[in-house]
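Posted in: Protein Modeling Q&A

I'm a second-year student putting together a small comparison for a lab meeting, and my supervisor asked me to include a predicted structure for Xanthine phosphoribosyltransferase. I've never done this before, so apologies if this is the wrong subforum. The sequence is pasted below exactly as I got it from our records. If anyone can share the structure token output, I'd also love a short note on what stands out.
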Amino acid sequence: MADREELTWDLFGTAGRELAEQVAADGFEPDLILSIARGGLFVAGALGYALDVKNLHVMNVEFYTGVDQRLDMPVVLPPVPSAVDLAGARVLVADDVADTGATLKLVRDFCSDKVAEVRCAVVYQKPRSEVDCEYVWRHTDRWINFPWSVLPPVARHRPRVLDA
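Accepted answer (user: helix_wrangler)
Welcome! Here is the predicted structure, written out as tokens:
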């Protein structure tokens, strides 16, 4: 589809490495990488290996519910990272795309008063993003087909109520 950005697994390997090279060339040495689940998990893993950072954390944020369909505002889902784990750290927030930037802003703001420094790295940034990320592989205004989400799930998750 011409109206979409197509990211393949091979191209993602290139993107992850080139993002890491931007971070290294800038002299930023993160103490930890905070991935925004789910798409940011792939980016954080690639950056973690390329930057030799083993301390990876996850923040679950729900915002998108479908192609160009989103909630009114992003919502942090448990478990929420502990302030103690982030205290005084240089944090690199990793995500797949800065679309509106609302999710990145939520995570960056969550970190800002707990950490020494926070910077953002994304594979793609769109012009409308309210967060201008420090590290961006590509800029686009198109919808992006990511290799991890372009195919439908092989099974549907049915949330179940856990006994307390």
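A couple of things worth pointing out for your meeting: The beta strands are 4-6, 32-37, 56-66, 69-77, 90-98, 117-125, 135-139, 143-145. The chain has four helices and eight strands.
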